[in-house]
Design a protein that fits this description.
Chain lengths: 399, 96
Amino acid sequence: MSNKISYFGIIVTKTHMKIYLNNGSTSFPKPLEVTNAINEHLQALPGNYGRSGIDKSKGSIVSSTRKLISDFFNGSESHNLVFTSGSTEALNLAILGSIKEKCHIVTTAIEHNSVYRPLDKLKQVYGIELTIVACDEFGNVSLNDIEKAIKADTNMIAINHCSNITGAMTDIQAISEIAERHDCILVIDGSQTAGVIPIDLQKLNCHYFAFTGHKSLYGLQGCGGLFIRKDQNPEPLKFGGTGFKSDSLSQPHELPYKYESGTLNIPGIISLNAGIEWIMATGIDKIHERKDTIIKKIVDSISGYRGIRLYYSSINNSGTLLSFNIGQLPPEETHYWLETNYDIIARSGLMCSPVIRKYIGTEPLGAVRISPSYFTTDEEVDYTINAIKAIAYNEEKLI
Amino acid sequence: MKVMYFEYEEGCLEGRNVHSAYLNDTINKNFIDYLAKLGKLVYITEMNKPAFRVIVRGKYTMKGNESDDHFMVILPEGDDISPLAELKEFISHYVG
């Protein structure tokens, strides 16, 4: 492999650059437009949204980004957007803020701990009953199984739009119709799909849609949001200064202030603004197609090679990530050799999604996951394929 | 060769008593052979960089790559890190 790799037309030496294939966790590199927007913000006088800041223009970026994101998800008419630190805070607000008494909740085997743990908290506080609907060996959850799990006292369905382990996508439009039919609150975790595929919240009509900014929206870590359908009124999880109605000792009832106490993550919001602008300028379909092409090439190249097991099906798949294991090699061992011997940054283990392993056959230690970027080069893909094959070839010696 | 410092590998799935040893020089085959005096060596040449694993039976496992300035030490589960001091002493006697 050549030791030269090009990012944004800048040639860098491979020896100083690792191959980053952990975009399912955090996207890297960020588009140049995002980096520039953050740099510009950090070098300008600070403003503080809603407060008497020096530069008022720093306040307006919050409102304009809120509108930009709402329009991007077609949620302006149907939903209010609240900024959060990411999906975890958003899901906590949706789940803990809406359920205030004992009831039954349906979730699935493909969720992240950002759903399981707030639900567990509800178990502890209110004694809620939880049904975790199984998935198949590829992480697909049956719509029929979800509907069958609903009981008379089911109040909520909390569901992942896309598994962060297998890339399996759930049909959230159909689940929304199920939720509507049974009068259940629908909470969707869009961590792995926001910025990957077009999402139309007005059509979807879910009660809550949580997203994070640092994955496929190309923002900084620590930014994200929750879309709250306009007929929903969850209890806030945090209280304090909002820069609004400061003469009152009580939390304002007005949105978004009700849920946005404390200093907003302005650099994060600016990065989200630039990230979404970049996605719109580049084309969400074009970005997605590039990732999907890479995943399919890797699948075709390593499938069936020397004990490699893929946890992947091309049907209903996001085409953004690929989890696998090699023979008897523990996933962390494969991860170690990819990183230290080949300078490839992957992810391994349970990836905060502990239930799915029972169904896809990755107990007890999970799998290795690679998740490329739009910027991943063909050369990097070929290098990665050869690296995985070399580790598989040497599996017995590496155990 | 000197171990400059050991760094605890937080959240390492290989166990809760895993450390990286950072050296004052890069690892070469002679050094790997020196480490191999402590136990059983598995040396793999068909990788990007030659890789090694030295299993010191009942004590710990070391693994790493040639040309790196660090390698991993996997100790048995628990709080005992005394083998690291012994290893540091052993490495200090290596003359490349």
